[in-house]
Amino acid sequence: MNNFIVGQVTPDMLTHLKYGTYIFFGIFTAMGAAFIAFYFPETKGLTLEEMDTLFGSVGTAEREKERWREVHAEVGLTELLHRAGVYNGSDEHVAGGDMEKPVLETKHEEHTPVA
């Protein structure tokens, strides 16, 4: 809806305000950035559990992990991972999220065209 409104008013603003249109939108963009910077906490580098605590919803991530454990047990994924020797039974395990993916080395050979 906002993009529609901006699309409708911008041509009139450009006609009447000229370069002031860019200043107008620049000020609103700067105000939005300042609002986010000052009123929302930084979440970079935080775990889901730490963000739960930060935003006051303690236990949400743990309930989600428990639900995933139930789903994995229901579809047989937990048993399959046990047999494969991947699942160690820790509370931190959620379907390979902590497993390192293997690096596949491929050898590329240059082919010269035969004339």
Distance between the termini: 61 Å
Principal-axis shape equals flat
Looking at the chains present, what oligomeric state does this protein adopt? single chain
**Alpha-beta classification:** mainly alpha
- Stretches where pLDDT falls below 50 for ≥5 residues? none
For the CA atoms, what is the radius of gyration? 27 Å
In helices, the fraction of residues equals 55-70%
Question: β content, as a range?
Answer: under 5%
Number of helices: 5
Give the ordered list of helices and strands. Answer: HHHHH
Structural description of this entry:
The protein is mainly alpha-helical and 115 residues long. The protein is 59% helix and 0% strand. Among the domains are: 2-39; 48-84, no CATH class. The chain has 5 helices and no strands. The longest helix has 20 residues, at 20-39. The radius of gyration is 27 Å and the shape is flat.
List keywords for this structure.
single chain; 115 residues; mainly alpha; 5 helices; 0% strand
In short, what is this structure?
This protein is mainly alpha-helical and 115 residues long. Helix content is 59%, strand content 0%. The chain contains 5 helices and no strands.
